[in-house]
Structure formats: C-alpha cells, structure tokens
Specification:
Arc Repressor Mutant, subunit A; 3 domains; 10-stranded mixed beta sheet; 3-stranded antiparallel beta sheet; 15 helices; binds zinc ion
Length: 479
C-alpha cells in the first residue's frame, strides 16, 4: 500500500439549527413529528409559491464562515440546481453556486498523536435540504418534513490523506458547529453528513488519480470504513494495471459496503441559474463585524488557555473543552471556588461528567449548579465533610436542587471527629472481627485499610479518616 498515496476532499452538509426552514415559516426541527406534518406550498415546491430567506439561516451561516476563517461575501446569490427526483418536487434545489456566502478559510485538525493537519476550505454555501423517501411494502413513500431545512455545505480542498484524517476532521467540525451554536451536529439525525472525494495515485507521481465520490456518509465510523475500502479498491485497480474509472459510489449503511451508483460519463448537468424569486444576500461590513464579535472563544483556543492560565494537564483541558457549556461550568465553578483549578477539574471529570452521562443532558441542564459544586469542594477542603460524603452530596443536590449546606445540616452529614464516638465504633469493629485483628498483629498490616473501611461504613463515610486510622492503629498494636 505504501507506494500509493490517497487524496481526499470532503463535502460536508451541516444542518443549521434554525427555528424555521430556509425559505418558509414551517418548523425546521421536525425529527419526531409525523411525516408531512411540517410542510407548506413553498417547501413542497408548488408552482407559484414564493420563498423568502430566513435571516437566522444567514446569520448562522456567516458565524460558521467566520469560525473557519473564510472570507464572507458581502453579496451572494441563490441559484437553482435543476434535477428530477421524487423527494425534490419542484424539480430543483435552491443552493448557492458561483457566488456563495463564504470563500476560503481553513480548519486545523489535531490527530491523536498531536500532529496538526491544516485542511483548507474551498467554499461554504447555503442550500435547502431535500425530502426523504422510504419503501414500504413495495410502495414508495415520501416525507417532506426535511424538505427546505437550511444547510451549509462546507467543501474542503483535497488536503486529507487517510480515513483517520477524514474522521478527525469531521469530529473537529462537529465540535466546532456545536460549540458556536449553529447546529446540533447529530449524525444519527442526519444533521451532519458528508460526501467524500477519494483518489489514489502512485506515490511521487505528482499528478492526482481520477477521483470517485462516495455519497451520503452519515457516521464517523462509516467515514472511516467507506474511505478505507475505497482506497483499497482503487489501489487494487492500479496494481492490476487498470485505470480507475470515475464513479459515484454510495455507502450502504446496512450492508456496510460501497455500491456503485453511476459512472461519471452519465453525470448530470444541473443547468444552474439564478433563483428568480430570491434577492441577493447583501451584508454590510458593519454587520459582518458585529457578528464576528458574537463568535465565542473557540474550543482549541480555550483549551490552550486552560493549559496556560490554569496549569491544567493537556488531558484535562481537552476533556473540559469538548462541549462549550461543560467548559463554562468549569470556569464558573472555579470562580466561586477560588482555589486550585486542578482540584475543580478532578471533581468535574469524576462527578459532573458522570452526572452528565447518567442524566443524558448537558452540564448546563444539571440541577447542581457551579456555585453548589464550589461549595461542596470547599466543605471537603475545610474538613466539614469527607470526600465520600462530598460525592454523595453531589447526587443529593442533583436530585433535590437544594443547597449543599442545607442538605448536609438536614441529613447530619458533617464529619464525626468526636474521639469518644469514633473510639466506640473502632472498638466494636475490632472486637467483632477477631480473626482479622489477629492477622494484623501477625504482620498483615494492609488490614489496617480494611478496618478503616469498616469504620467508615459504620459511620456512612462521615468519620474523620485520619483520626480513625490513628485510633485503630493504637488499638490493634496495643501501643
Ligand atoms: Zn414550508
């Protein structure tokens, strides 16, 4: 394989999370709605229906352009891409052809080993989605709920060279679009999907091979598998002395294999022309700059800041900046807490991430707020509660929404440091476990930890662990 190199370009479709569709007032997010419940004459392509562009779509498309350093065109146009397909009843798709909203730009992708790959962007254009067809008992059904949903198609230059790089690019892009709030980027809901252009040529030949296009890849896993098998297929052809034919290929998600759709010889001519019912999109420089101001600190910038300013390990900084509201949660907690950032990071990564996973919401959706978490860490620091109780308290705050100090008082969770009480419990534990006590005296000193555990269990984790250790040791050794 090493004497061949692969060149890959990706065309990614990003569903913008607007309230309404691209050119009508139908609800855009109709994932859970019954088929054809969110449609109108505009998004079903009825003759004479007049579209009007969604301002939120343009705003979010521009935010995305700015986030990838693309140049925003102050004047861009909508065009008709003509083709006949059952899920496109007007006979055309509204898209942007020769003068799209964004040109150029790049996304820097970090590979697992830390290597950076700069992926240049050719253009970003707005377009509407098509409907969805489905076969049922030999009948073809069409659902137009998706029809007219606003998309941005982001087209890269052929700067990727392996399936892993393509997957890393998509993961990075997904993180970005979620972070800046323009898309949910959920691949299972087809909010993010891509076509891959793959060509393989002998290494060092200097000229690219003939490219094949893989359509409609809808998961990170499928991106990897589809590209790997296409690189293998083209390499086999070249090794057998054949020329690679220019194909359009479809990734079959059920069969988990590639399927040829058509040869490029019968490629479609889309006969693009300006959409006569839509005005050009005209943006002032002031407007673009104002939107630029809105753009939040990007995840990789924030990650670096966490490493530099808070001295967090690279691993922690990476985890805490996977989602924007998780990293906001961290910084808010740190502001309330005022102590060592690494300490907050530990509680976040162990306890808050656990709650996020368990509850299926994001950090901002949790009942326990940054102020509560900061208070709990402070209570542990000051010795008011043990770390074990602190963990329980996090769950109790999450369940009840009450303040940590109130729960600690109500449930009597503060540390037991009364020597008399602890000594009594230690005596009970030692006397009811004579065999272990004997083993300890015979030299099995690791049993001290076990005894401490028993006492902590008796006190439901509330005993001052240091004091317990001290009392047990003197009790067991008789010194
Ligand atoms: Zn509509």
């Amino acid at each position: 394989m090493s004497e061949y190199t692969a060149v890959i370009g990706l065309e990614t479709h990003i569903q913008l999370n607007t309230r309404t569709k691209a050119f009508c007032s139908c609800k855009a997010d109709s994932w859970n709605e019954p088929p054809n419940s969110s449609i109108c004459p505009v998004c079903t392509g009825q003759p004479g229906a007049l579209p009007s562009p969604n301002a939120e779509m343009i705003h979010k498309a521009v935010l995305l352009c700015l986030a990838v350093h693309a140049e925003v065109n102050q004047v861009s146009f909508f065009d008709r891409k003509n083709y006949l397909y059952a899920d496109m009843p007007g006979g055309y798709q509204v898209t942007q052809n020769d003068q799209p909203i964004g040109l150029g730009g790049y996304l820097d992708v970090e590979m697992d080993n830390g290597r950076m790959v700069r992926v240049r962007i050719d253009n970003l254009h707005m377009e509407e989605d098509a409907g969805k067809t489905r076969n049922e008992n030999g009948i073809r059904l069409i659902d137009f709920n998706r029809s007219g949903i606003p998309l941005v198609e982001m087209v890269t230059k052929p700067d990727l060279h392996s399936a892993d790089e393509a997957a890393a690019y998509l993961i990075r892009l997904r993180r970005l679009i979620r972070w800046i709030g323009v898309s949910e980027g959920n691949m299972e809901k087809a909010q993010l999907r891509c076509d891959a252009n793959v060509s393989v040529a002998p290494a060092g030949s200097g000229k690219p091979g003939r490219k094949c296009e893989i359509k409609n890849i809808n998961s990170i896993d499928a991106v990897r598998k589809a590209i790997v098998s296409e690189i293998e297929r083209q390499t086999r052809e070249l090794e057998a002395g054949h020329e690679v034919e220019q194909w359009t290929i479809e990734w079959d998600n059920d069969a988990r294999e590639l399927r040829k759709m058509r040869s490029k010889e019968n490629a479609v001519d889309y006969r693009f022309f300006r959409e006569p019912n839509l005005m050009p999109v005209v943006l002032s420089q002031e407007q673009i700059e104002a939107w630029h101001e809105e753009l939040p600190e990007l995840p990789w910038v924030r990650k670096q800041r966490f490493i530099t300013d808070y001295k967090l390990p690279v691993y922690d900084a990476g985890i805490l900046t996977t989602e924007r509201d998780l990293s906001d949660y961290f910084e808010e907690t740190l502001n309330f807490y005022g102590g060592d950032p690494k300490r907050v990071s530990n509680w976040m990564m162990n306890e808050i991430l656990r709650l996020v996973n368990e509850s299926g919401t994001s950090a901002s959706g949790l009942n326990i707020r940054p102020r509560d978490l900061a208070e709990i860490i402070q209570m542990v620091d000051s010795g008011t509660i043990t770390a074990a109780v602190g963990k329980d308290l996090i769950d109790l705050v999450q369940q009840s929404g009450k303040a940590p100090s109130r729960i600690a008082a109500e449930k009597n969770l503060t540390v037991v440091s009364d020597e008399g009480i602890i000594r009594g419990i230690c005596e009970k534990v030692v006397s009811s476990n004579p065999k272990e006590a004997e083993a300890f005296r015979a030299g099995k000193e690791t049993l001290l930890g076990w005894f401490t555990g028993q006492v902590m269990r008796e006190t439901k984790g509330k005993a001052d662990a240091k004091l317990v250790g001290k009392i047990l040791k003197s009790m067991l050794t008789g010194r």
